[in-house]
Amino acid sequence: MQNKKKLIKGSAVVATLLSAVLSTTSLASSHDHMDITELKHNANDNKTVNAVKMIAKNTVNISATESAETSKNALMEKLAKIEFFSAEFNQQIFDEAGNELQQGSGLLSVSKPNLVNWQTIMPDESLIVSDGKNLWFYDPFVEQVSVYTLESAIANTPILLITSNDPKLWQDYSVSQLSDNRYLVTANNDNARVKSLELSFAKKANKLELSAFNILDATGQLSVITLNHQHKAPKPDLFKFTVPEGVYLDDQR
Question: Is 138 exposed, middle or buried (0-12, 13-18, 19+ CB in 10 A)?
Answer without folding.
Answer: buried
